[in-house]
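The material for today's practical consists of a large collection of protein records. Read left to right, the backbone structure tokens trace the chain's path through space. An example says more than a description, so a record of this kind follows:
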Amino acid sequence: MSAALQDRLQAASNEFQKLQNDLSGAVEARQRLDAQLSENELVKKEFNQLKESNVIYKLIGPVLVKQDHAEAKSNVETRLDFIRGEIKRVETQLKDLEEKSEKKKMEVSPARAGHFPSPKLLTFVVV
């Protein structure tokens, strides 16, 4: 194998590894967002069961501050919208990274690099 080909394969391999790391980070982000979404949906469900006589407190630093029902529900709904938007963004990022990774994988694979004949090029004649 020539030095130029070896360098090209090494560079492609390094790029593939970076894509895999980016993909792993995006998967972790998606999992965190799923957990946040579940938590906030649970809070919303709990808010729907509250009566107007119930008191809602918001934790700000080490202090609990009384909060209006409508404001608390609005804050949770805003968070849910934000989280859903982030999930869509991360899913798009995941799809893009998976496509790039697959392309780079093909570039790095020995059959694509010219070390082995491609299976598509082989023909068999049965007599």
